[in-house]
From TrEMBL:
Cross-referenced InterPro entries: Flagellum_FlbT
Species this chain originates from: Bradyrhizobium macuxiense
Keywords of this entry: Bacterial flagellum biogenesis, Cell projection, Cilium, Flagellum, Repressor, RNA-binding
Biological processes, Gene Ontology terms: bacterial-type flagellum organization; mRNA catabolic process; negative regulation of bacterial-type flagellum assembly
GO molecular function: mRNA 5'-UTR binding
Full protein name: Flagellar protein FlbT
NCBIfam families: PRK12791.1
Amino acid sequence: MALKVELKPNERIIVGSCVITNTDQRARLLIDGDRIPILREKDILTPETADTPAKLIYLAVQLMYLSPDPMAHHPTYFSLVRDIITAMPSAWPFIESVNNFILNGDLYHALKESKKLIAHEEKLLESARGQQKTNQDDTRKSA
């Protein structure tokens, strides 16, 4: 069964090892193939935009997903996993799920699960920022 993809004007998509850039009008593509990696521009992370531990994990999984040899990226991924679990133990359920998808060769779902890890990290960072602001406000009031 073919995958239907609607592209916005000038939107890019990765299909296999090719980057396809749409023209200035909307386009609809039908992509037929078995186990071809496909990533929309909104789902692509670059080394420059992978600026948190969870985003680095996503980037490593993305590289596995797009690579003809996913195992080449395993050392980087598992090193990042050790670091994030040490710093953020609450990430374990997300990491466990990503690991299971990777071990089963389902890198697309590992990538989707990595997005949940990013959302979890963002929630924790937002909470920490709110706590820091509260502490600063309390310090100002007592001064």
